UniProtKB/TrEMBL annotation:
SUPFAM superfamilies: EAL domain-like, Nucleotide cyclase. It holds the Pfam family GGDEF. InterPro entries: Cyclic-di-GMP_PDE-like (IPR050706), EAL_dom (IPR001633), EAL_sf (IPR035919), GGDEF_dom (IPR000160), Nucleotide_cyclase (IPR029787), Rev_trsase/Diguanyl_cyclase (IPR043128). Residues 207-460 form the EAL domain. One of its GO terms (molecular function) is cyclic-guanylate-specific phosphodiesterase activity. This is EAL domain-containing protein. Residues 68-198 form the GGDEF domain.
Length: 467
């Protein structure tokens, strides 16, 4: 039943009520419906509240006792996918049920507390407190129980504690604060937890500003298509490009991607921005095609959130047909994280697009722990070797690893592009390994699409003169 239909039926059933009374009855009825559904909104594996009932219960608790202080503790397991791969899914589920029992204990034994199983290995608890140290004690207690749990794999939990000085804060805000605190220690094995602090609060405010500004940025054309050329290192000829987004804010000027892309990935708006840039790429290549100009591939980035986007293939096929662009001229660049969200679903979508002529490129090759498994399991047309891979060429070991990695990829028959080439030494070494195609500041920085077009036009003119 929709919100409006429920309201109309309740109001119609009480004709003698005043408008205020009707609204009060309506709200009471909705609350009763929500309360009755709470028990149905538990996760099957752990029987903890799911995120919907957790938000509802905590929201009601905070509303009824607004003068108390509330905090959220969130936890996930470092590289939980490796736990499942090493121990098996059944053992992984056994671990998750035990962790759930640790969180559930506080819901049953600590006043003003609710526990939640968000998804996979991510759990959280909301509770009232007097001093932050109370929340830190809970973290230490849960961590000790998990550490002492008899298990074949060393389990490393990470925690974030979200707090707010505001009276009656929104539960979603506390959860976001806890998540930000937890993410601040990822990769720091010497730290178990972090508490949301003033520095994070300032960052959160910047994120809110990005969220507020991004819709008008799209409407007003502030997000612009930039392209970083890909070149043949043997002669410097432009052989393609990678589409990038830049934000020219009317007051702040050029906003660095690192300040807005992570925010958009968190709130899901990156899908809108991706599709906005994709359309600009197809429109540009369609223009070249209509004008009978030389076409070069311009790859587009597909974010990890597209792992859940059932309309991904439909969108790309529509753009291809609308702008009459051969699909091989719009390679799809994905990072390993795009597959980690929904590996089977993303494999299926990519294979469907490959059948329709699109090419699939793995970006940032060599930076993820499961990259080799992905290379073995997924059909790829192109590999982009990450710039970190070629940074230490003065070391003999680095040269051996790079040389043999390139040889392996060549044997697999995939096209190779080296990212981040910045020195003549790197260029010479890579050419010696038989690798010709690259991106990097040694050749070109990212540029507005108009500048990229001028570069191509100049190259076409030079080609015509040599004919």
């Amino acid at each position: 039943m929709t919100y409006q239909k429920a309201k109309e039926e309740i109001i119609e059933s009480s004709p003698q009520k005043t408008d205020a009374g009707k609204e009060e009855l309506y709200l009471y009825s909705l609350r009763k419906m929500a309360e009755e559904n709470v028990e149905n909104n538990r996760t099957g594996l752990t029987n903890l509240h799911n995120i919907n009932s957790f938000f509802y219960l905590c929201g009601e608790m905070i509303k009824q006792q607004p003068d108390k202080k509330y905090g959220v503790i969130i936890m996930d397991i470092v590289q939980f996918k490796a736990v499942n791969e090493f121990c098996g899914r059944d053992e992984g589920d056994r671990l998750l049920r035990f962790i759930a029992s640790c969180f559930d204990w506080y819901e049953n034994n600590r006043p003003d507390s609710y526990a939640c199983h968000i998804r996979a290995d991510i759990f959280c608890i909301c509770t009232s407190y007097e001093e932050v140290e109370e929340l830190e004690i809970i973290v230490r207690e849960i961590r000790k129980k998990i550490t002492d749990f008899p298990f074949a794999y060393r389990v490393q939990p990470s925690f974030g504690i979200g707090i707010s000085p505001e009276r009656a804060p929104a539960i979603s805000y506390l959860k976001d604060c806890a998540t930000m605190a937890m993410n601040s220690i990822k990769g720091k094995v010497y730290r178990t937890y972090a508490v949301f602090d003033e520095k994070m609060r300032s960052q959160k405010m910047r994120e809110r500003q990005v969220e507020n500004d991004i819709v008008s940025a799209l409407e007003n054309g502030e997000l612009q298509l930039y392209v970083q050329p890909k070149v043949d290192m043997r002669d410097g000829r432009v052989i393609g490009g990678e589409a990038l987004v830049r934000w020219k804010h009317p007051e702040k000027g050029l906003v660095p991607p690192r300040e807005f892309i992570p925010v958009l990935e968190k709130n899901g708006f990156i899908i809108n921005v991706d599709e906005y840039i994709w359309e600009k790429v197809f429109a540009y290549l369609g223009k070249l095609h209509r004008e009978d100009r030389m076409l070069v591939p311009v790859s587009i980035n597909v974010s990890r959130l597209h792992a859940y986007d059932e309309k991904l293939a439909e969108t790309l096929i529509r753009l291809r047909e609308e702008y009459d662009v051969p699909p091989e001229y719009v390679p799809l660049e994905l990072t390993e994280s795009a597959f980690l969200e929904d590996e089977a679903g993303m494999y299926r979508r990519m294979e469907s697009l490959r059948e329709r002529g699109f090419l699939v490129s793995m970006d940032d090759f060599g930076t993820g722990y499961s990259t080799m498994n992905m290379l073995k399991n997924q059909t790829l047309d192109e590999i982009k070797i990450d710039k970190e891979f070629i940074r230490d060429l003065e070391k003999d070991k680095s040269r051996i690893i790079i040389r043999n990695t390139i040889a392996m990829l060549q044997q697999l028959g995939v096209h190779i592009v080296i990212e981040g080439v910045e020195t003549e030494e790197q260029k010479s070494f890579l050419l010696g390994c038989g690798c010709t195609d690259a991106q990097g500041f040694l050749f070109h920085r990212p540029m507005p699409v108009e500048a990229f077009d001028a570069l191509l036009l100049q190259q076409e003119c030079e080609y015509d003169r040599t004919k």
